[in-house]
UniProtKB/TrEMBL annotation:
This is Phosphoribosylglycinamide formyltransferase. Keywords: Purine biosynthesis, Transferase. Gene3D superfamilies: Formyl transferase, N-terminal domain. It holds the Pfam family Formyl_trans_N. The record marks 149 as: Raises pKa of active site His. The keyword Transferase applies. It comes from Isachenkonia alkalipeptolytica.
Length: 206
């Protein structure tokens, strides 16, 4: 499966995918890394391996719509058949979702629908989990729909929170989990074992 990875930050999730590919644990190829942030370190992670990268900064375009049309053009010409949002802090417009039906996935650092949706991204998620005194949190991989963090859930896994855990400890526990969950979801899709039925997902046995 050919992956286009969209990111805005450090790209440790991208790195986890690249590592799994290198270890032969993931039958995939990253054909494009795109960011809406010039200088996102995730771009560097790909550049070092000769993976094509592209930047689509909002301010470089007359409108968000035109930025997104350029992004779609790049996705199409990359030949990607799965778009992976790995810390991409941008809204994917409907016309891109329609171009890739059930072919865009996102990883979110909580057990959706808890602490998901607009306003909950990055550290804000873990701060919310901490403030609520939750005893478990986790990560979710889901298909992207027009509702932020609202698409059919592919995989979720929980992790325990100790009283001593601060926000950064929670963030680190979840990130470690994400680095396993995202490649696992991509592998399931690559094996054709993921079926969307309504707003639910069935994972077929091997
Ligand atoms: C991850 O926590 C991911 O769940 C969220 O943004 C963060 C990206 O981290 N969407 P990285 O850039 O992959 O290190």
């Amino acid at each position: 499966v050919k992956l286009a990875v969209l990111l805005s930050g450090g790209g440790t999730n991208l790195q986890a995918v690249l590592d799994q590919i290198d270890q032969g644990a993931l039958s995939a190829e990253v054909v494009l890394i795109a960011s809406n942030k010039e200088g996102a370190y995730g771009l560097t992670r790909g550049g070092q391996r000769g993976i094509p990268t592209a930047v689509f900064q909002r301010q470089s375009f007359p409108s968000k719509d035109q930025r997104d049309r350029e992004l779609l053009r790049a996705l199409k010409s990359s030949g990607a058949d799965l778009v992976v949002l790995a810390g991409y802090l941008g809204q994917i417009p409907g016309f891109i979702i329609e171009a890739y039906p059930n072919q865009i996935i996102n990883i979110h650092p909580s057990l959706l629908p808890c602490f998901g949706g607009k306003g909950y991204y990055g550290e804000k998620v873990h701060q919310g989990v901490y403030n609520r005194g939750m005893k478990v949190t986790g990560a979710t991989v889901h298909f992207v729909s027009e509702e932020t963090d609202g698409g059919p859930i592919i995989l979720q896994e929980a992790v325990g929170i100790d009283f001593e855990d601060g926000v950064s400890d929670i963030q680190q526990k979840v990130l470690t989990l994400e680095h396993r969950l995202l490649p696992e979801a991509i592998e399931l899709i690559a094996e054709g074992r993921v079926e969307v039925i309504g707003n639910r997902v069935k994972i077929r046995e091997r």
